[in-house]
Design goal:
By secondary structure, the protein is an alpha+beta fold. The chain contains twelve helices and 16 strands. Helix content is 40%, strand content 28%. The strands form four sheets. The chain has a six-stranded mixed beta sheet, sandwiched between helices. A five-stranded antiparallel beta sheet has the order 5-4-8-7-6. A hairpin with a 4-residue loop joins strand 7 and strand 8. It is globular, with a radius of gyration of 26 Å.
Amino acid sequence: MVTRPKETKAEALKQLQDSLLAAGNGVYNTGIIISPASGRQIVSMYKAVYDADGQPIGFVGLGIYTDKLVKSLDDLSTKGFENSTYCMVNVKDSKYIFSPDSKLVNTVTDSKEIKKLCKSLGGKLTEQDGKFFYEKGGEKYISAYSYIPQYGWILMLDDTKSEVLALTKVMRIYMLIFAVVIIVLMVVFYFINRKQEQVNQKLAASIVKNNKTKDSLYTAMFKDVLTDVNNRVSFSMDTEEMKPTANNPYYFVMFNIADFSAVNSQYGNDTGDWLLVRTVDVLRQVFRGSKIYRTGSDEFVVAVQANSNTADEILDTVKDAYNRLTGRQNSPIGKLQFKFRTSVVRKNSDINTSVITVLKDAVNRFTGQITLTDMNQK
């Protein structure tokens, strides 16, 4: 299918190829665009395919229609805001991404205020919020906006000045509803990335006919969004590449946040998120150069292949990390102390996901004494 006019195809293809190479093994997120093939609005993503020598040999693409998201935005309503409207604009080209008037989608705005706002926010790397005033048809309006720097989007909510001033409390609720919609959009991106492995597997058969290329697609890694470490899917894939020996065994260390649900209940989800990120920071400081995985909501696994390190040295390192994690820490709400459970296993033969089962079993029996379980002993 020819998706672009002939005179622009080479230039557009070159731009896409450069962006894919810059993304490396990651997913290149084009953003919300009008599909050249269908003429419908989509969330567009691409991923490069590499051969066994690491050379790019092609790419795969995925487009998700935004129809349902647009319908959700159009159906939103708040009592007392009968005159309110919304729109979303791309700061790069001042074109509408979403608009109640579907004819305006992918067209350049004719609003001087919006063009000025796009020019001032373009290139900024931090979130920006604000408002501006304008007149239309003799009526005074207020437009409240929120800038999303990750994608270069401005979300705007417009209403008459009289209605806003009369219902300021309701306006806050309305903004909260739209904030939830944006969060839902981010979650959609997250789950699309989670499903990328399955999509790659289905597309592999139509792109290449050999096992090496399939393996290249299967090795596309997924990361935990909050802590930026590998997740359990990545652990399962990485175990196939781990080659331990009797002289160079692998040590797997699990750190479990005890009663993590109680932390969220007592201190709030923000503190819980901070604790997850803080846990990864400590593990990175102690286990330098080792891979860290988030294998559950409250558990992390560190994979260490020993060179000259002895089992005692590994246990000393684990104890160091444990002491740092259980000591009093300066959290966003003050000095707090959290409980952790830990377990260590050693494996010098074939490795698979059964390691996590053994680690969990040892963690559940943890009494404060760090011990080593040798999975090679029968």
